[in-house]
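Lab notebook page, bench 4
Experiment: in silico fold of construct C2
Operator: M.H.
Input chain length: 260 residues
Purpose: comparison with the prior construct
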Amino acid sequence: MSKTVLITGASGGIGKELANRFVKDRYNMVLVARSEGKLEELAKEYREGYGVQVTVYAKDVSLPGVAEEIASDLKKKGITVDYLVNNAGFGLYGEFLETQLEQEMNMIDVNIKALTIMTKVFLPDMVKRCRGGVMNVASVGAFYPGPLMSVYFATKAYVLSFTEALENELSGTAVTVTALCPGPTATDFTSRAELGSSKLYKSGVMKVEEVADEAYRDFLRGKTLIVPGTVHRFITSLPRLLPRKVMARLIRERTARVEQ
């Protein structure tokens, strides 16, 4: 029997690339994102190209009751979610005193609240069935403070800590929990977070296909932590070697915009 994966933020970027890899292995898909047009286009491609079942929800997972609504509808349709990929998220660039509170609270709702609720809703059934896995998309920014992106880095620190704690709680079950911590990646995230002119992104990014390849392989192997790219794995080791104030200064220098 084919397994089913649910992916949030599935209409582009890492979410879409992960979906491409699951569907090539004939997983049935549940695609969630706000862009109905992009989701329907992707669903048509998957159904016609791979003959899999694709269910689409053009919804904002950060809104109250949406996760429960999706779970209820899937149950009515007899669809069991074997794997959950919490990919929906976005970033915000700027000094905290200058950024908009509404945008920051929206980011917290998407990056933290929605991820937590989706996990709460779908994880219990996986444990009952003694199979399944959850991938939470964090960031290399989860490992250190992030001046000029302070709230974003903090949300990803939550995701990493939450995931590692769940992994411990679920030891002894057959359910895996994974934190994917990509570094700078060539996706629409860069433009939404207004990071395109930062030194961090000018210095080079990973191709989204490379990130998805490593993430997909290691997730199905049951790894708890995935940091794609040798350079990024090295960077995540720096907080163990340097004082956090030094890390904050280094990150600010790399995140600062390059003058045009």
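Observations: The beta strands are 4-8, 28-33, 54-58, 83-86, 133-137, 176-180, 225-226. The first helix runs from residue 13 to 24.
Next step: discuss at group meeting.
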